[in-house]
């Protein structure tokens, strides 16, 4: 049931929308519009390999009743990388879920690398996130989602969560990729085909004509200690799945894969 | 009383129907090689996970929607394809779906295009007038039964021991089918993360008997 927002005092929740619009310019993508409201902000800076958009949740994490929206529109032919300033933390909820909506739209021939930092789920958190990347004709994207269950360094093991994280990529209105993840309390202890002991996992997907060709170079990098991974190329996609005992080796493996899949260094905020 | 419609569905979902299910282990071959499935208990847990949190539930929901008289079959087929985590799993759904559609078309004279398996089955069974939960339950038991047969040969497991796994999964199979029959497409979610990863890793196994 959706939270009755009128009954929750304003100071207990945070809402935010950051909407960035980019268009191509003579020296790469340039800012056409920026709308920011509430706890969502976006920064733009020119990195070594093009424009980088960094989204930020100024409330410092997600609590029950929060609603955060990040949007990025790339005009035809535009190329950009987008990420988040820090790992997103979903804190204990007192009932209502936190919502995050990510909606990126790419015009014809545009290219986006959507590389948010990991999402850390705390015990008793309730988070519903929907990520949609809409590709125009000939547009291409690289999308990452990494999830860490609790803070391993603090010996935390999750007993109860409600996490729904639907990731979708459409090309000209048709689904080309959908990963509707739903991880609830009963799945935490289900075993061999679910988490199988992992506390961190990630999906990296590239959609572009010829994406299948990257499967060889990517597989050659899938040997980070403490990470189990697999890669497959099909239907104009490269899909990489990773599972690890902890967020740190997962991050190291992701950085190695980005070095293969993306020209230039990773987003500046990602660097370790 | 069982009607000819029931008998047709049982025929289409029997292991003798030429959909080629025996060639697809859904990642089980990799799980056996990893030592994750070694006996009846570990097979049952793995299958329970796949049915509840993986392709079992997802295919049952897709099937239930494909059974609707006004289903957007093209969009459901796109969705079924887009949901596959790997090339082999796409092949598993695509080739079995095409074979099912082709064979049902050949024996009934109906025009049935190649679709992903749950969508092809839904489209084929649409005119039978059977309850969605019945079609979904028989489909899920067929899916699990094929994997149990594979485990019998390759774990290996005794025949009775393996069939007892399938028997113990029947209450779950029936309740998943009931729920899938009325689930909206937004409920098409899962978390068979390790199961999917095993399916991806199957692609690079040096010795493989199965296509998935």
TrEMBL record, chain A:
Which UniProt keywords are present, listed alphabetically? Chaperone, Cytoplasm, Nickel insertion
**Which InterPro entries does the UniProt entry name for this protein?**
UreD (IPR002669)
UniProt signal peptide: none
The protein's location, in the record's own words, is: Cytoplasm
Indicate whether Chaperone appears among the record's keywords. Answer: yes
**Oligomer and partners:** UreD, UreF and UreG form a complex that acts as a GTP-hydrolysis-dependent molecular chaperone, activating the urease apoprotein by helping to assemble the nickel containing metallocenter of UreC. The UreE protein probably delivers the nickel.
Described function:
Required for maturation of urease via the functional incorporation of the urease nickel metallocenter.
Instruction: Give the UniProt family note.
Output: Belongs to the UreD family.
PANTHER family, per this entry? UREASE ACCESSORY PROTEIN D (PTHR33643:SF1)
Q: What's the protein here called? A: Urease accessory protein UreD
Origin species, per record, is Sinisalibacter lacisalsi
Organism ancestry: Bacteria, Pseudomonadati, Pseudomonadota, Alphaproteobacteria, Rhodobacterales
From TrEMBL, chain B:
Q: Which InterPro entries match?
A: UreF, UreF_sf
Q: Does the keyword Cytoplasm apply?
A: yes
Q: Where in the cell is it found?
A: Cytoplasm
Main location as per UniProt: cytoplasm
Q: Cite the entry's keywords alphabetically.
A: Chaperone, Cytoplasm, Nickel insertion
* Annotated Gene3D superfamilies: Urease accessory protein UreF
Q: Does the keyword Isomerase apply?
A: no
Which ranges of the sequence are coiled-coil? none
Q: Which residues cross the membrane?
A: none
Q: Which family does it belong to?
A: Belongs to the UreF family.
Functional description taken from the UniProt entry: Required for maturation of urease via the functional incorporation of the urease nickel metallocenter.
Quaternary structure and interacting proteins, as annotated: UreD, UreF and UreG form a complex that acts as a GTP-hydrolysis-dependent molecular chaperone, activating the urease apoprotein by helping to assemble the nickel containing metallocenter of UreC. The UreE protein probably delivers the nickel.
This chain belongs to which protein, by name? Urease accessory protein UreF
Q: What is the species listed in this Swiss-Prot or TrEMBL entry?
A: Sinisalibacter lacisalsi
């Amino acid at each position: 049931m959706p939270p009755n927002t009128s009954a929750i005092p304003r100071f207990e929740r945070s809402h935010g929308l950051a909407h960035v619009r980019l268009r191509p310019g003579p020296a790469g993508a340039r800012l056409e519009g920026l709308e920011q409201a509430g706890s969502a902000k976006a920064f733009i800076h020119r990195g070594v390999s093009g424009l980088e958009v960094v989204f930020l949740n100024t409330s410092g994490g997600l609590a029950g009743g929060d609603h955060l929206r990040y949007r990025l529109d790339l005009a035809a032919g535009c190329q950009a990388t987008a990420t988040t300033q820090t790992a997103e933390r979903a804190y204990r909820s007192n009932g209502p879920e936190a919502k995050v909506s990510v909606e990126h739209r790419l015009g014809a021939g545009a290219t986006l690398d959507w590389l948010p930092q990991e999402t850390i789920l705390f015990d008793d958190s309730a988070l519903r996130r929907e990520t949609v990347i809409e590709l125009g004709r000939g547009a291409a994207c690289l999308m990452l989602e990494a999830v860490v269950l609790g803070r391993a360094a603090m010996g935390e093991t999750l007993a109860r969560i409600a996490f729904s994280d639907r990731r979708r990529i459409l090309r000209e209105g048709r689904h080309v990729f959908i990963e509707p993840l739903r991880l609830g309390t009963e799945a935490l202890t289900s075993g061999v085909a679910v988490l199988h002991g992992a506390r961190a996992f990630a999906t990296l997907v590239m959609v572009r004509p010829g994406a299948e060709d990257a499967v060889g170079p990517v597989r050659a990098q899938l040997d980070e200690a403490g990470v189990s991974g697999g890669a497959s190329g099909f239907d104009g996609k490269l899909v990489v799945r990773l599972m690890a005992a902890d967020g740190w080796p997962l991050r190291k493996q992701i950085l190695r894969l980005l070095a293969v899949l993306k020209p230039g260094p990773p987003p500046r905020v990602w660097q370790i | 009383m069982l009607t000819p419609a029931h008998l047709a569905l049982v025929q289409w979902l029997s292991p003798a129907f030429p959909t080629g299910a025996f060639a697809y282990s859904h990642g089980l071959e990799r799980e056996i090689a990893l030592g994750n499935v070694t006996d009846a208990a570990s097979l049952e847990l793995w299958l329970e996970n796949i049915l509840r949190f993986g392709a079992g539930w997802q295919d049952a929901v897709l099937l239930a929607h494909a059974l609707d008289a006004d289903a957007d079959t093209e969009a459901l087929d796109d969705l079924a394809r887009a949901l596959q985590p790997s090339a082999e799993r796409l092949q598993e759904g695509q080739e079995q779906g095409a074979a099912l559609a082709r064979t049902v078309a050949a024996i009934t004279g109906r025009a049935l295009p190649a679709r992903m398996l749950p969508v092809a089955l839904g489209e084929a069974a649409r005119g039978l007038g059977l309850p969605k939960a019945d079609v979904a339950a028989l489909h899920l038991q067929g899916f699990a039964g094929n994997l149990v047969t594979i485990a019998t040969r390759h774990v290996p497991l005794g025949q009775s021991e393996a069939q007892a796994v399938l028997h113990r999964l029947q209450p779950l199979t029936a309740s998943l089918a009931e729920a899938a029959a009325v689930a909206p497409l937004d409920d098409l979610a899962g978390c068979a993360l390790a199961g999917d990863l095993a399916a991806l890793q199957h692609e690079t196994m040096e010795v493989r008997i199965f296509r998935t």
